[in-house]
Specification:
With 92 residues, the chain is an alpha+beta fold. The chain has a 3-stranded antiparallel sheet with strand order 4-3-5. Strands 1-2 form a two-stranded antiparallel ribbon. Strand 3 and strand 4 form a beta hairpin. The longest helix is centred in the C-terminal third of the chain and has 13 residues. The protein is globular.
């Protein structure tokens, strides 16, 4: 592929972004959930506090994946939010 972006839509804010800018939550064939890797139904989420809170409050990941999403998945995403710097946030 010659460098074209693969676009995906955030389940919360519905913004269309390059999939590399989004978190991917995957419903695996065995019924489990995985972050960023694996084959199965996927839902994408912006790596922001606002989208994460809204997704949890309105059950956006459950609806997108068509299964229950454990609190541990939200906790892992929250942890990721607190440890990774937001791209483009540095002063210019």
């Amino acid at each position: 592929m010659s460098g074209h972006a693969v676009l995906r839509r955030c389940v919360t804010c519905r913004q269309l972004l390059d999939r590399q800018q989004l978190w991917r939550v995957v419903r695996l064939k065995d019924g489990g959930l995985s972050l960023d890797q694996g084959m199965g139904r996927s839902a994408y989420l912006c790596p922001t506090q606002a989208c994460l809170e809204e997704a949890k409050r309105r059950k956006k990941l459950q609806k997108g994946l068509r299964c229950q999403v454990a609190d541990s998945i939200y906790a892992a995403l929250e942890q990721r939010l607190n440890t990774t710097p937001v791209a483009g946030s540095e002063a210019r």
